Fold this protein.
Amino acid sequence: MRYFEDIQIGDEQSFGKYSITEEEIIDFGKKFDPQPFHTDKEKAKTSAIGTLIASGWHTCAIFMRLFVDEYLDGGNGMPSPGVDNISWLKPVKPGDTLSVRVTVSSIRRSKSKPNRGIIKNFCEVINQNHETVLTMYTNGFVPVKNPVNITK
Amino acid sequence: MRYFEDIQIGDEQSFGKYSITEEEIIDFGKKFDPQPFHTDKEKAKTSAIGTLIASGWHTCAIFMRLFVDEYLDGGNGMPSPGVDNISWLKPVKPGDTLSVRVTVSSIRRSKSKPNRGIIKNFCEVINQNHETVLTMYTNGFVPVKNPVNITK
C-alpha cells in the first residue's frame, strides 16, 4: 500500500509489459468502439492510418490494468474522481508491447477528508519502440498513514 | 455522415440505452481494472461505495459504443486525438441503464487540413434516475463537405 507520507512530487515509476494481439483489438472494438479501423483488418487498410489500430479506450483500459497490478498493488480502495487531458498520440497496433511510466505531478492533503491525500499523476503509455502512444493526468486519492501527526 | 457545415455550437443530441449487468461489470473489471469493488460482490460490500460498481473505464467504453452507433453512425474514419476532463461523478451499478447527451462545445476549421473541422463535444452519461454519472469533453474531427466554398 502506498501512503500519502511516502509520496513526493516528481516521483517516477516505470512498469508493466502488455502485448496486444489483433484478436483482442478486434474483440474490444466490436464490443465498445465498432469503427472499421478497430474491427476489420481489410477495411482498416483504406482508413486514415492504413492499418488496424486499437481503440483509444482499449489503450486506457490496458493502462489501468498495468496501473492496478503494478502501481496500486491491487487497489487502495478509493475510486478515482476523474482523468484530465487524454492524448492519443500514436496508434497502437497488433503485436505492440506497452508499458507505463507514472510521474507524480501534484499531491496535497484533502481539506474535507483528513485521512486522505489527493494525487495527480502524469501517466504515459509507451510502446516497444520507446514511442509514447498515450499521455494523461489521472486524479486519485491515497490513504494517509498518520492523520494526526502529519506535517506535509 | 455528419459534416462540418451542418454543425453549430450548442447543438444537442440525446440517444442510446445500455443496461449494464453484474456479470459484465465483473468481466471488465477482471480484465482491465481488478480492484475488488469492480470484481468481487462480497468484498465490494466493505469498500468505500459499499457495493459492486463498474470501472470508470467501462463507463467510458459504453459511452463510446453508444456514440459510435448513434452519433457517428458507425464512424467517420477519423480517430480522435483525445479527451479532456473526464469526471466520474456517480457510481454505475449492476442493472443501471445508461444513455448519452452530447452538446457541441466548439467547432472550427482545421488550419493545416482544410478538408476537416475540429470539434469539441461536451458529453454526459446519464442513468435511469436522470443522474449524470460521467462528463467529459471529447475532441474529434469532422469531414468538410465543400472544402473550397466554405465560409464558416
Observations:
- The longest strand of chain A covers residues 97-109.
- Chain A is about 25% helix and 35% strand.
